[in-house]
């Protein structure tokens, strides 16, 4: 089963049955929690409910390891930058190691690790949301959460539709990129081997067709919506109305409790104060 951010996987699980508004709100709050937290013990505790939701969604656990690939790449890139940017301090918790006349400070390692962990959490949390929520439910959930903005004449429905379409296009573009890579490989393009110059040339052969395909699919989608008489400014009614249930309240309460715990930790009140 191919699992990518933005791709819905139909199933009948506890996470699938949660109210889309609750899932969206929990997703936003969890990302806030991940960025506020600076304790590795805290990240370990946050990981427990996140992995539990992932397991309840009946998604393959091995995909968690495949999600590490972009995180490792980002981590290595940021680590190289942080070596030259982050200056060593006299903090007793961090040590400086000299390697080939290059001083690698503990702060550089710590900062890189924090960013990598945060990116990894964001990928997992967003994957759970998009894999367990239908695009139409995602759109309506976004619209309901942004409903107060209608007071100031904010185009809530249009923005919700744009975000939902953008998320839906992610797996489509990934599939297209795989198809183009196979087509170019059959023509002799080597994406794996060669020096930096050869890799740049091979990447160009992928990016240009991908851009052309993206604009073509966007135009086809626009024509299809126009043919069906879609009017973004028309007043809409709903056949199905959402209702908050018992498990929705419990899930949201747990996430809010985690947010309060992290804020208390930042203030040095909780059991795991943040080392600012």
From TrEMBL:
The chain crosses the membrane at residues 24-51, 71-90, 111-131, 151-174, 246-272. GO terms for cellular component: plasma membrane. Pfam families: CbiQ. Keywords: Membrane, Transmembrane, Transmembrane helix. It is a multi-pass membrane protein. It is found in: Membrane. InterPro entries: ABC/ECF_trnsptr_transmembrane. This is Energy-coupling factor transporter transmembrane protein EcfT. It comes from Mycoplasma todarodis.
């Amino acid at each position: 089963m191919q699992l990518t951010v933005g791709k819905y996987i139909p199933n009948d699980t506890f996470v699938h049955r949660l109210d889309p508004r609750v899932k969206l709100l929990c997703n936003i709050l969890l990302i806030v929690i991940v960025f506020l937290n600076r304790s590795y013990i805290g990240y370990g505790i946050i990981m427990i409910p996140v992995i539990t939701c992932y397991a309840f969604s009946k998604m393959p656990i091995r995909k968690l390891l495949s999600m590490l690939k972009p995180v490792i790449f980002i981590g290595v890139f940021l680590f190289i930058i942080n070596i030259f940017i982050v200056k060593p301090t006299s903090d007793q918790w961090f040590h400086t190691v000299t390697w080939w006349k290059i001083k690698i400070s503990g702060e550089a390692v710590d900062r890189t690790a924090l960013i990598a962990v945060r990116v990894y959490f964001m990928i997992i949390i967003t994957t759970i949301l998009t894999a367990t929520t239908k695009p139409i439910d995602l759109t309506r959930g976004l619209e309901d959460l942004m409903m107060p903005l209608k007071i100031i004449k904010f185009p809530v429905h249009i923005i919700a539709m744009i975000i939902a379409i953008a998320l839906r296009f992610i797996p489509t573009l990934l599939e297209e990129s795989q198809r183009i890579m196979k087509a170019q490989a059959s023509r002799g393009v080597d994406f794996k081997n060669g020096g930096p110059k050869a890799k740049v040339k091979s990447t160009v052969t992928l990016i240009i067709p991908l851009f052309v395909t993206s604009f073509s699919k966007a135009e086809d989608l626009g024509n299809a919506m126009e043919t069906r008489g879609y009017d973004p400014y028309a007043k809409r009614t709903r056949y199905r109305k959402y209702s908050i249930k018992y498990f929705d309240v419990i899930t949201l309460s747990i996430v809010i409790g985690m947010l309060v715990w992290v804020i208390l930790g930042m203030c040095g009140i909780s059991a795991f104060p943040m080392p600012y």
